[in-house]
UniProtKB/TrEMBL annotation:
Belongs to the sigma-70 factor family. ECF subfamily. It comes from Paenibacillus favisporus. Keywords: Sigma factor, Transcription, Transcription regulation. SUPFAM superfamilies: Sigma2 domain of RNA polymerase sigma factors, Sigma3 and sigma4 domains of RNA polymerase sigma factors. This is RNA polymerase sigma-70 factor (ECF subfamily). Residues 123-173 form the RNA polymerase sigma factor 70 region 4 type domain.
Length: 187
């Protein structure tokens, strides 16, 4: 369902119609889940963040401008919540650093059914190795096909910063492909 088809349901959801909200949820859930899964490794955290995205969306409906693409707005909420989660996690990790060193945690990527197609690509593992700031630009650009200006809007950073991160990410991916001797092509 595209943004234009969602507009009437969004208006109803803004007025408190729970069934309209449920329809918006169903139309966007898989997309939001995959975006979070690309940015976060722990399955439980992914599910918690996705739930928080929809609670935040429900609370923020009154601020949504229907002249702006809905999915850009929703991905903005998603990325900000992932960034908040990463900050909170970093604080927790620092507090429990000694315990973490003693136990070896294994991060389960996510449900194989959700990411099965993406995991088949050679570039997928390379994208996962990028820093968060580079990875989020690559995911928004190539997974969601956002223009650089839209990515700047979602991340609330200057377009020049997005271009710089995009360039650096592509350079890093090319370097890693050369190192692995892979045949994948990054343009």
């Amino acid at each position: 369902m595209n943004d234009n088809e969602l507009l009437s349901w969004l208006e109803k959801a803004k007025l408190g119609d729970e069934s309209a909200f449920q329809l918006v949820y169903q139309a966007t859930h898989q997309d939001v889940y995959r975006t979070v899964a690309f940015l976060v490794y722990n399955k439980q955290d992914i599910e918690d963040i996705v739930n928080e995205v929809y609670m935040s969306m429900w609370r923020a409906f009154q601020t949504y401008d229907p002249n702006r693409p809905f999915r850009v707005w929703l991905h903005g909420i998603t990325v900000r919540l992932v960034q908040d989660w990463k900050r909170k996690t970093w604080r927790r990790i620092r507090l429990f650093e000694r315990n973490r060193r003693m136990t070896c945690e294994h991060f389960d990527w996510t449900d194989k059914a959700v990411l099965q197609f993406e995991m088949q690509h050679e570039l997928f593992s390379l994208v996962r190795q990028l820093s968060y700031k580079l990875r989020v630009v690559v995911i928004l650009r190539y997974f969601h096909d956002y223009a650089l200006e839209e990515i700047a809007d979602i991340l609330q950073i200057p377009v020049g910063t997005v271009k710089s991160r995009h360039h650096l990410a592509m350079k890093e991916l090319r370097k890693r492909i050369e190192m692995t001797g892979g045949d994948a092509y990054v343009h």
